[in-house]
């Protein structure tokens, strides 16, 4: 398996014009992993770039490229979290009887006759 390179640095490595590789903390990212594999081999490369806590990102829907968008997305998530009411957040409510429940006994005691229901006088034949 040969080194296929699409950049000038890769061509220099392929032609053996670059014989060593140094990585610094703030180095430019190298897009071609074959260059690193050529100098260090696969096991050391995989051990060198293990994921760390800084590699974990906040997930949000939409574009969060700007700091303002990120702050808005964070605010929306927190406000949606607090929109759910748990029983500990419920207010204590004193329920009162509806008028139907309150006067049911009274309506039951009052006898309604057909004469009281009809306002027009009945004709006697």
UniProtKB/TrEMBL annotation:
UniProt-recorded name of the protein: Small ribosomal subunit protein uS5 C-terminal domain-containing protein
Organism domain of life: Eukaryota
GO BP term, pick one: translation
Signal sequence residues: none
Span of domain Small ribosomal subunit protein uS5 C-terminal: 53-91
Record's GO cellular component terms: ribosome
GO molecular function, one term: structural constituent of ribosome
């Amino acid at each position: 398996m040969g080194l296929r390179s699409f950049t000038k640095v890769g061509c220099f490595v392929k032609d053996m014009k670059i014989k060593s590789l140094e990585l610094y903390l703030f180095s430019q990212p190298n897009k071609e992993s074959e260059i690193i594999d050529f100098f260090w081999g696969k096991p050391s490369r995989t051990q060198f770039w293990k994921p760390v806590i800084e590699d974990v990102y906040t997930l949000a829907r939409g574009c969060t490229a700007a700091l303002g968008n990120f702050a808005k997305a964070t605010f929306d998530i927190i406000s949606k979290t607090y929109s759910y009411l748990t029983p500990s957040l419920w207010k204590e409510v004193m329920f009162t009887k509806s008028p139907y429940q309150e006067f049911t006994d009274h309506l039951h005691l009052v006898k309604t006759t057909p004469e009281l229901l009809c306002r027009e006088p009945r004709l006697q034949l």
